[in-house]
Amino acid sequence: MATTSSAIAHTFSEALIAKMLGQLHQAVPKLTGAKSSEPEAIKQALPPGTMTEVKDFLLSLAQENSLDRLPEIVQALEASLLTAEAKLQAEVVSAVPLSTAQQKSTTTKLQAQYGQLTVHFKVDESLIGGLVIRVGDQVIDNSIRLRLGSIQHTLLTQ
């Protein structure tokens, strides 16, 4: 199964979120209960290379006198991400019912490409063969019906 630009974008967005969360996790023990909410003290508590967005977020928390809420904010962010991941659904449509082994293999490949998702399997005999896979707003159509339609179009336009 070819990696698409949507899958690549998904992978990069996950990496960005993971990096931001990692930096917030590092900041929690250093800033929870911090005596000073001075910008320079906050910057000193952060590891080198902390993303500007993370620094700005923490500075705005300090400005609002809410640094003590950082642990619960990080937990809420993680919970939101888990909920968003749980919502990712895939639909695999085949011309004939797939065996249990085929379903497991397909699920494993999709999860390797997209992360945790729920896969639903359907049968549509009009496909003739192959699969149509929908993940979110992305569609991968590898059906014989599509290929025959493409051949027919090519023949009719010549």
Distance between the termini: 31 Å
Derived structural class: alpha+beta
Low-confidence stretches: none
Number of contiguous helices: 6
Q: Please outline the major beta sheet.
A: 4 strands, mixed
The H-and-E topology, N to C, reads as HHHHEHEEEH
How much helicity do the residues have?
55-70%
Question: How much is the average pLDDT?
Answer: 83
Strand order of the largest sheet: 2-1-3-4
Number of domains: 2
Q: Please tell me how large the radius of gyration is.
A: 23 Å
Overall shape: it is elongated
Structure in words:
With 158 residues, the protein is of the alpha+beta class. It folds into two domains: 5-84, no CATH class; 88-156, no CATH class. Helix content is 58%, strand content 15%. Strand 1 (89-94), helix 5 and strand 2 (118-123) form a beta-alpha-beta unit.
Describe the protein's topology.
Elements: H1 5-31, H2 39-45, H3 52-63, H4 70-86, E1 89-94, H5 100-114, E2 118-123, E3 130-135, E4 138-143, H6 144-156
Parallel strand pairs: 1-2
Antiparallel strand pairs: 1-3, 3-4
Helix pairs in contact: 1-4
Give the key terms.
6 helices; alpha+beta; elongated; 158 residues; 2 domains; 4 strands
Offer a concise description of the structure.
The protein is built from six helices and four strands. The protein is of the alpha+beta class.
